[in-house]
Amino acid sequence: MKKAFSKIAAILMAVEKFGINQQVYSQFCPMANGNKGGSWLSLEDKVLNPYCGVAMLTCGEVTKTIK
């Protein structure tokens, strides 16, 4: 599982550094991954947490808008 999360982190860093051809939102949930936190990219500013399932679907926040 750690390999998958390290790939997500690498993608996030690349998008933040080099940009992307559309607006995306970097989002973060502090409770993901056993309270270690987890980030993801979304095309919407509405938080739909992919880590915590239906019980905590809106847990998290937009931490950055990337254009």
Provide a short characterization of the protein structure.
By secondary structure, the chain is of the alpha+beta class.
Low-confidence stretches: none
- How are helices and strands ordered from N to C? HEHEE
Radius of gyration: 12 Å
How far apart are the termini?
Answer: 29 Å
> What percentage of the residues does DSSP assign to strands (E)?
25-35%
Approximate helicity band: 25-40%
**Overall residue-averaged pLDDT value:** 89
Task: List how many beta strands DSSP finds.
Answer: 3
Count of distinct structural domains = 1
Sheet/helix structural class? alpha+beta
Enumerate the strands of the largest sheet in spatial order, edge to edge or round the barrel.
2-1-3
Summarize the main sheet.
3 strands, antiparallel
> If helices are DSSP runs of H or I spanning 4 or more residues, what is the number of helices?
2
Outline, from the CA principal axes?
A: globular
